[in-house]
Write a structure and sequence with these properties.
Elements (H helix, E strand, L loop, with lengths): L1 E13 L6 E13 L3 E5 L6 H9 L6 E6 L2 E2 L3 H5 L1 E4 L11 H11 L7 H11 L15 H13 L5 E5 L7 H16 L3 E5 L3 H7 L2 E6 L2 E7 H7 L14 H11 L13 H14 L7
Parallel strand pairs: 3-8, 3-9, 6-7, 7-8
Antiparallel strand pairs: 1-2, 1-4, 4-5, 9-10
Bound molecules: adenosine-5'-triphosphate and magnesium ion.
Length: 287
C-alpha cells in the first residue's frame, strides 16, 4: 500500500510581477510505500522541499494530484496523520524546548490529559532531556534541529516528513537519529526524508527517489539503485595473501575483472552523481 500517491505534480513559482516563471517541479508521479523509509535526493534547488510542502498541503501544486493515506493532502485528516520537520525550523526563541514541543502538541490536537508525559517522551527520543528547560534562543543549531524532530514526533504520527533531519547534527548525533528513524519504521511508521548525506541514507533508508531540475531522474530500492552503478561486491571474510593472484586469474578467465578490494560504501553516491549528470543532459532514467 502507498502512504503517498503523487500524480503529475507540477509547481511553478513566480518571484514577482513580470518575473520569469520557475518550474520547481515538472510532472512528478510516484508512490511512497507505507511502512518504509524513503529518501528524497537531489542537488540544491532540485525541488525536494517544494515536493515535501505539497505533500503536506502547505503549498498547492500548479497541476497534479497528491494523496496522503488516500485523502487529498491538505485535508484535516491528512494533516493529523503527518509529523513534519521543516528545513529551517522557526521557533519562538523565548520558549524553552519543553514549551516549544508542548505548543506543537497542542497545535497538533493533543488534549491536556497526559500531555506532559507525551512531550517528555518525544524529548527523550531525541536525547534532549537535560536541555529541555533552556530557552530555544540559547540552543545550538543541532539542538534546535533535535527539538524540531521532537515536535514532529509528539503527536505519534503514522507518516513523518523530515526535511534534512541531520543537517547541522554531528556524526554521533546523526547516527542516533538514524537509529531513531529505524525504530519508527519498526513501529510500522512511514518516513519520507530529504538529505544530502548519502552514506547515511544508504544505511538508514529502504528506497530513494532522485530529483534533478524538478524532474524525477531515478527511483527504486537503494540496494538495487546502488547495484545499477555497476560491479558486484563480494564479501570475503579472509583470504591468504597469495590467493589474490589466483582469484584475479580465475575471474579474468571468465571475462570478469577484480577492480577494487576495499569495503565499498559509495554506491549510492556514485549513482547520485551519475544520474544527476544524465538528468542534466536531458536523459531520464526510468524508475
Ligand atoms: N517560494 C518560492 N518562490 C520562488 N521560487 C521558489 C520558492 N520556493 C522554491 N523556489 C524555487 O524552486 C526550486 C526548488 O527549490 P527547493 O527549495 O524545493 O529545492 P531543494 O531541492 O529543497 O534544495 P536544497 O537542497 O537547497 O534544500 C528552486 O529553483 C527555488 O529557487
Ligand atoms: Mg530543500
Amino acid at each position: 500500500m502507498n502512504a503517498i500517491e503523487l500524480a503529475g505534480i507540477t509547481k511553478d513559482f513566480r518571484s514577482g510581477a513580470g518575473a520569469a516563471r520557475i518550474r520547481a517541479l515538472d510532472g512528478i508521479s510516484l508512490g511512497i510505500e507505507a511502512g518504509e523509509v524513503t529518501a528524497l535526493l537531489g542537488p540544491n534547488g532540485s525541488g525536494k522541499s517544494t515536493l515535501l510542502k505539497i505533500i503536506l498541503g502547505l503549498l498547492a501544486p500548479t497541476a497534479g494530484d497528491c494523496r496522503v493515506f488516500g485523502v487529498p493532502s491538505g485535508c484535516v485528516e491528512a494533516r493529523r496523520a503527518v509529523g513534519y520537520l521543516p528545513e529551517t525550523p522557526d521557533f519562538y526563541p523565548h520558549l524553552t524546548g519543553f514549551e516549544t514541543v508542548r505548543f506543537y502538541a497542542r497545535m497538533g490536537g493533543l488534549t491536556r490529559a497526559g500531555l506532559p508525559e507525551r512531550v517528555w517522551a518525544a524529548i527523550a527520543k531525541v536525547g534532549l532531556v537535560a536541555e529541555a528547560h533552556r530557552r530555544i534562543g540559547s540552543y545550538s543549531q543541532g539542538m534546535r534541529q533535535r527539538i524540531g524532530l521532537a515536535q514532529a514526533l509528539v503527536t505519534d504520527p503514522w507518516l513523518l516528513i523530515l526535511d534534512e533531519p541531520t543537517s547541522g547534527i554531528d556524526p554521533a548525533g546523526a547516527a542516533e537519529i538514524g537509529a531513531l528513524i529505524r525504530r519508527l519504521k519498526a513501529e510500522g511508521r512511514t518516513v519520507l526524508l530529504s538529505s544530502h548525506q548519502l552514506e547515511q541514507v544508504e544505511e538508514v533508508c529502504d528506497r530513494a527517489v532522485m530529483l534533478d531540475h524538478g524532474r524525477q531522474v531515478a527511483a527504486g530500492r537503494i540496494d538495487e539503485l546502488a547495484r545499477r552503478a555497476g560491479g558486484i561486491m563480494l564479501g570475503i571474510e579472509s583470504l591468504p595473501e597469495n590467493a589474490w593472484g589466483e582469484l584475479r586469474a580465475w575471474l579474468e578467465a571468465r571475462g570478469g575483472r577484480l577492480h577494487d578490494t576495499r569495503m565499498n560504501r559509495t554506491g549510492l553516491r556514485r549513482v547520485f552523481l551519475e544520474t544527476v549528470q544524465r538528468g542534466r543532459s536531458g536523459e531520464i532514467c526510468p524508475p
